[in-house]
Amino acid sequence: MRLFPLFFLFACILPACKNQPKEAEQVTQTNVQVPQDFLDFYEKFHRDSLYQVAHINWPLQGDTDERIDSTHFQKKNTAWQQADWRMQKLDFNHNDYVFDRKMLGDILIIERIRPKTANYGIERRFAKQADGEWALIYYSDLQEIK
């Protein structure tokens, strides 16, 4: 049940998918200056499934929307488990989506991705770990982006 919003988001994204690596590379370009080591991590994170799983803090904290009735959802805290994780890729047309990044200090990046035509999207938080590597530390699927 908690995977429904994730599948819904992917179903919305799927029609815009294109198998063009240059499109995915362009997605990383934003108006926020992020460190080059993060950009290198980000590109590999979305290309290599084993690397992605190794660079997520399990269980991954976040939240999901739980259906109350046919038109209402309630935000619910969750801990995403490695066994249930679906690899995240950025192989869709970046012109149809808004990518917003905020840096908090040198070690935390908050990213929100949503279609240009909707106020719903995902939020991810990446943090630099003690060993100098970046990792996904928070994932919120299909939420209202304000």
Report strand %: 35-45%
Number of strands: 6
Span of the ends, CA to CA: 25 Å
- Give the oligomer, counting copies of the same chain as homo and different chains as hetero: single chain
Percentage of residues in helical conformation: 10-25%
Q: Structural class, from helix and strand content? A: alpha+beta
Overall mean pLDDT stands at 81
Residue ranges: pLDDT <50 for 5 or more in a row?
Answer: 3-30
Q: What is the radius of gyration computed over CA atoms, rounded to a whole number of angstroms?
A: 15 Å
Total individual domains: 1
CATH topology: Nuclear Transport Factor 2, Chain: A
The succession of helices and strands, N to C, reads HHHHEEEEEE
Give the strand order, joined by hyphens, for the main sheet: 2-1-6-5-4-3
